Fold this protein.
Amino acid sequence: MKKQWWKESVVYQIYPRSFMDGNGDGIGDIPGILSKLDYLQNLGVDVIWLSPVYESPNDDNGYDISDYRSILGEFGTIDDWKSLLEGLHDRGMKLIMDLVVNHSSDEHAWFVESRKSKDNPYRDYYIWREGKGGKEPNDWGSFFSGSAWQRDEATGEYFLHLFSKKQPDLNWENEALRQEIYDMMTWWLDLGIDGFRMDVINLISKVPELPNAGNGDGKYVFGGEYFMNGPRIHEYLQEMNRKVLSKYDIMTVGEAIGVTPEEASLYVGEDRGELNMVFHFELMDVDSGPGGKWDVVPWKLSDLKRIIGKWQRSLHGKGWNSLYLNNHDQPRMVSRFGDDGRYRIESAKMLATLLHTLQGTPYVYQGEELGMVNVKFDGVSEYKDIETLNMYEEYAAAGRDHSEIMNSIYVKGRDNARTPMQWNGSANAGFTTGTPWIRVNPSYMDINAERTLADENSVFHYYRKLIRLRKENEIAVYGDYRPLLENDNRVFAYVRSLGDDRLVVVLNFFGAPAEVVFDELIAYGNCELYIGNYEDAPRNELEQRIELRPYEARVYKLT
Ligand code: ISL
Ligand code: CA
């Protein structure tokens, strides 16, 4: 397998609005990030992925961009941004920027022109259609509730928006539009950035006929089959790679909703000239019922094991996995897959062990290294996320029970991940001296960076150790993956191997003790504990029979 710096890196995602406020207006900003560069360096991460900091009316917190080449005033200036890039580079870290080009803001100059008239030169930069019988051009629903179409007064036609009404989809069929995007990407790369995270990049090619997705009963339905991995997607990405990406030593990761491992290998296959990695959603869907993400069902360890194992094996030797358990769109991993009460620390470390001992590049989301947890605000009015608010309105209008809707929000809402970073136990968790744009999670007295830094057994120090070990042990990066104990419903176990070396990973996923018997363990000359989340785990013996304590994680290195 070809060695690459981005395979050996750990990426840390910053959601700038919620990371650190430098000027007391309650909104995280770039000067705030600058004040935390030593913190990031201390953690040991290699690459920072910065969620959007571009000019935006913030309908979707910056994922609706009105100017791709300027920095939003409330985040700082382009000079602040340049200091950030320099500060990271000086400390040996890299910076990747979020590229949001499936859609722009409706306040982008292109859209302002486009909506003016049918013959405007920018008309074709977006996806316009006539209505059908006084209704939308088709029955597609938006990811953020309601129709994916909005009628525009000026011409009476509708434009497509897979996300909010203020996020019109760009028309990638238009060659001039594609060239504008490539020029913009080149502009950022020439400023010295180290790559891109590409927002919903597998949605940019739509089936041109835009067919109906439902059965004609008037309901809006998910039209994914007509825009996920669409007909020209690989052509576009290969063109982008040829014209832009291939000219730089950078990393790329594409967010890819609904991709299977087979499809993923088309995006990330090393001989394909497209992307380095994709974020798939299979794991994020394990607790969604037939009604979608808000239809919460319990996840099963057997599904986690099956999905992870499938991705590990399918991409092995062909492409590269991205490894994540949460981000700014997902609930906190400890609350979702661990225990955010009694075993918060143990389970945060256990999940971190999984993330850092699989083949692929780990992505850590801000606050994860503190073991931050989900939040429960009393009323819907405390929530800020457009997806959550639109869903609430739609479900409430349909007569659904308030407390049931709130429960879905508590379990799945995106604001779980967007409460301010918890720096210390002072007012507003040390995030701001003003009033934060979204309420701080009340857990901050207990869970905060100052406390976790001072405690050598904390989640933070465990992440440091995992990151360092991964750097010192090629096997953790490049070793191949073989499952163990496949039918065990409580324990996730696997072996990584590289040459004659082995890493044996054993993870108890629940709050009760579990005993495991490794009948196939081979006698090795040397066995040492590579890492574990309980102090007194045996360091030099791998017994055939192991008693795991609640959420215990052990990794043994056999040489
Ligand atoms: O998980 C989701 C499906 O309901 C959504 O939260 C999310 O919109 C989807 O994962 C796509 O995410 C990306 O594009 C969106 C933006 O709101 C997200 O923040 C971004 O990560 C539109 O740009
Ligand atoms: Ca600020």
In short: The chain has 15 helices and 22 strands. The chain has a mean pLDDT of 97.
